[in-house]
Each structure stands twice: as C-alpha cells, then as structure tokens.
Specification:
The complex is a heterodimer of chains A (285) and B (191).
Chain A (H helix, E strand, L loop, with lengths): L3 H4 L8 H8 L5 H12 L2 H13 L8 H25 L7 H22 L24 E10 L2 E4 L5 E2 L4 E9 L3 E8 L4 E5 L7 E2 L6 E2 L3 E3 L6 E8 L4 H26 L3 E8 L10
Helix pairs in contact in A: 2-3, 2-4
Chain B lengths: L4 H23 L2 H17 L1 H5 L4 H22 L6 E2 L12 H14 L4 H12 L4 H8 L3 H20 L7 H16 L5
The chains are: A alpha+beta (285), B mainly alpha (191).
Chain lengths: 285, 191
C-alpha cells in the first residue's frame, strides 16, 4: 500500500540522485562519505546503492555509433523544428517572396544539375539490397519474435497455423543476440502498413539482448481481411528506413517477398497470421 | 566539439547504470529504460560543451532523462492507433514484478498518466527519486508551497478520475488513494 505522506523523504536520508552521485564517483571524499553515512542506516538507500552495482550488468553494451547516429537525427529534428518555428513567424506581406527568390532559384538550379549530372542511385528497395546490421561487437545480429493470444479470456501461446479473427489480442515476445533495437510493424490484407513498436517517431525501441522477453502492451487485430504479416527488424536505426523497405518489397513482390526476406536475413523475423472472414461466436472457434 | 569514443565510454560506465535503474523504476520496463539511456547519452553528445561545464553531470542527466520519461508517459496516454494498444498486458512483461513495492510503483505509474507534466515531474522526484520536498521543488523550478499545491491537484484529479468510468484502475488502487488522504489533509499545513 502506498502512503505517499510517509514515503516523502523528510531529509533523514540521501535522495537517489545523491546516492547516484556518490556511486558514480562524482562527489569529493567528504561529500561521498556524508552520503554513504546517511544511507547506512536506511535499508532502502543501501538497497538502491546495491541495485546500482547490479545495473552495470543490465545496461545495453556501449555502442558509440548508435549514440552518434541518434544524436545526429535528434539534431536534425531540432533544426527542422526551429526552421518550422521561424517559418511560422509573421512576415511583411509585401516583401516575403523576395527572401525566397534567390534561394528558390539556387535550389532549382541544383536540382536540375543533380538530375542531369548524377547517375541514378538505387534505394535499398529489394530483398537483395537489404542491409543487415552488425552488433556492437561486429558480429551479424539476429533476432526472433513470438506471440501470445488472448481470445475468449483465454491466454495461450500463438500459432501461425490457426485462423485469427478481428478482436483477437496479441502480445509479442522477442529474443535477440546482441541487437539493442527493434522496429515491429505489419502489413495487412488491405496492403496497409501499421507501426507498433515504436508507436511514433523514427527511433526504434530499445530491446535487451539475451533471454526471451515480453514487449509491453498488446494489439487487437482489426477486420482487415486475409492476413496480417508482422515483421520485426532487429538492430536497425531508423523506422523510416525499415518502413521504406517493407513498402517497396511488398509493392514489388507481395507478402511472399517479405516472408522470404525474413527467411534470408537473420535480423528480420516474421509472424504471418491468417485471418478468418467472419468472426465466429465464442466457443465455436 | 564532440566527445571522443573514449570520453563517452568513461561517462557511460560511470552514469548509464544510474540512469537505467532510475528510468526502469519510473517507466516500469527494461526497453524504455534502455531507450532512456540512449536518449540521454545522445543528448550528451549534442550538448557536449554545456554538459562538460555542469557542476553535477548526473543532475543534468537526471533532467534530460526526466524529460524523456515525461514524453514516454505522455505517449502512453495518447496512444490511439488504428488498433488499440492496451496498457494492461496479456502476460507480465517483467520477471521482476513481484512484491508489494512493485504494486506501489505500478499504481503510481498509472496515476501519473492522469497528470500534467509538472505534476508528473513532482511525483517522479518525490516518489521515484526519493527527494525531499525542497529538492523536488528545486528540480522542477517551483517553490515548495507551489509544489504542495500541484501535488494536491494531482491527487484530487486522480481521485475524481477513479470515481468516473473513464479510468478503470484496479481495485487495489482505491486502497492506494485512500491511503493518500492523510497527505491530502496535511497539504494545508506548514510549508
């Protein structure tokens, strides 16, 4: 039971921030001693400190490339937002177009030059062009997903062999060797792309290498017909990149192309759900 | 100016476990905690010059990771996809979720979804960071009396939401709120 009134620190013990400062070696000797002395008689504080020792093993391996890529994307996003803000600022009606004239001319000229002078560049849109990620240790990464079903209030391990219906709830588990990111999305019988993890943005969700783990949350299948093909991309750094590839392969080769992609490459896994036409009544399934 | 890999690695060894453990406690799962660490260190790269000048680098990282947690909580609240994403999972997402402490944290997490960002930050600092009222007020940038008022508003809103049909908290949460009443009553007391 929570009793927040009693939980609020009256000042008789160090906060977890202070414990973290002591643990990380940020404090000088006198400060460090004061914090550790204050924690000594407080079981929760000492447990937190011990937990920090254990957390060393739980953090993802240090991967500077991943951090720098993310920093780069974040900075780009911030710049775009700043530009957007600037463009929203009111400007003089008479003169606004003058600002753009030289820029527009230069951009148009550059675009023409690029089209004329440069050879066409293929985007990675086919299975053969799929770029597999590498782990922080340099090894080719891999990952697998599995799922649980909730139907008629019964939870059971999912199977691709059975028919699924609108209203079925699905929760995913994953296991990965060395990869620390995941993008999970699906293509359904209407050809629509649905992004689940992450639910928004371009940054994949973080995952923990090692034993099998459940993903937080679940999805409810809608009434899209025929199939729901779920794809998990491990170790990729951009949702847009993944979505582009899935869209391109699906447009070119259909569902089979995506299934083959998951067979050919260890960093991609798939779950293919067959959808029933009309949902039978409970108990008749 | 950017940090070298060696500089980043030293900071990572020094601070990543602290940020990870804190954010796992606030957000309730490993994945978000890992992501919070990645986000925080990416921002260290972007703001390297400023970061190096901080008297407490961990305090700076706490602020960054608090913002990340607030965003995550906000996103959880506003998820509205073509398919409904449920907060309550079919099976447990953690192998560590046991015992009364977990129940407390899980309930506070759900109550946080009702709050605005300032209230969330206050509750995070008081409940998850174990700060005093004065420390939490400093972190959020408000006075202690304001902190008390904001906490009061949060608790009232949580109680009202539970009375309505819109927020189906577990029965255990009722007990939780009832146990918060002494705090509510004490809010009118000395600053």
């Amino acid at each position: 039971m929570i009793d927040l009134d009693k939980r609020i620190n009256p000042g008789d013990r160090p906060s977890r921030l202070e414990l973290g400062q002591a643990w990380s070696g940020e404090l000088d000797d006198a400060q460090d001693r004061a914090i550790r002395d204050g924690a000594e008689s407080q079981p929760a504080s000492t447990a937190w400190l011990e937990g920090l020792d254990g957390a060393r093993e739980e953090v993802a391996p240090f991967d500077p490339e991943l951090l720098r890529k993310r920093a780069f994307r974040m900075q780009q996003d911030e710049q775009r937002e700043a530009e957007l803000e600037t463009s929203r600022e009111p400007r003089s009606r008479a003169a606004w177009w003058r600002e753009f004239l030289p820029v527009t001319g230069a951009v148009a000229a550059a675009a023409v030059a690029i089209v004329v002078l440069l050879p066409p560049v293929d985007r990675p849109t086919t299975r053969e062009q799929h770029v597999t990620p590498h782990t922080a240790t340099g090894a080719k990464g891999s990952g697998a997903i599995d799922f649980y079903m909730l139907r008629d209030d019964q939870v059971h391990p999912g199977s691709e062999d059975e028919i699924h219906w609108a209203g079925d709830r699905v929760q995913f588990s994953y296991r990965t060797q060395g990869e620390s990111t995941l993008v999970l999305l699906s293509v359904d019988g209407r050809g629509e792309l649905n992004l689940y993890y992450p639910d928004t943005g371009d940054d994949p969700v973080s995952v923990v290498p090692g034993e099998r783990r459940m993903l937080e949350g679940s999805i409810i299948l809608d009434d899209a017909p025929d199939f729901e093909l779920i794809l998990a991309y491990f170790g990729h750094s951009s949702v847009a990149e993944v979505s582009d590839e899935v869209r391109a392969i699906f447009d070119e080769e259909g569902r089979e192309g995506l299934l083959l992609l998951a067979v050919d490459y260890q960093d991609v896994d798939s779950i293919s759900l067959h959808k029933g036409e009309t949902s039978p009544a409970a108990g008749e399934r | 100016m950017r940090p070298t890999d060696a500089e980043l690695q030293t900071l990572y060894a020094q601070y990543a476990p602290v940020i990870h453990r804190r954010c796992r406690s606030i957000l309730g799962n490993e994945e978000d905690a890992h992501d919070a660490v990645q986000e925080t260190f990416s921002r260290v790269i972007i703001h390297w010059e400023k970061f190096r000048g901080e008297s407490s680098q961990l305090t700076w990282m706490y602020r960054i990771s608090t913002n990340y947690c607030l965003n995550r909580i906000r996103n959880r609240r506003s998820r509205a996809d073509k398919r409904q994403v449920h907060r309550d999972e079919i099976v447990s997402t953690s192998f560590e979720r046991a015992g009364s402490l977990w129940e407390d944290e899980a309930t506070v997490r759900r109550l946080l979804e009702l709050a605005d960002d300032q209230e969330r930050a206050i509750v995070i600092h008081l409940f998850f960071d174990d700060m005093t009222r004065e420390q939490a007020a400093r972190m959020v940038g408000v006075s202690v009396p304001t902190l008390r008022k904001r906490l009061n508003i949060f608790l009232n809103r949580a109680r009202k939401a539970m009375e309505s049909d819109g927020f189906a908290l577990a029965a255990g949460a009722v007990v939780v709120l009832l146990s918060l009443l002494p705090l509510l009553l004490s809010l009118g007391g000395a600053p």
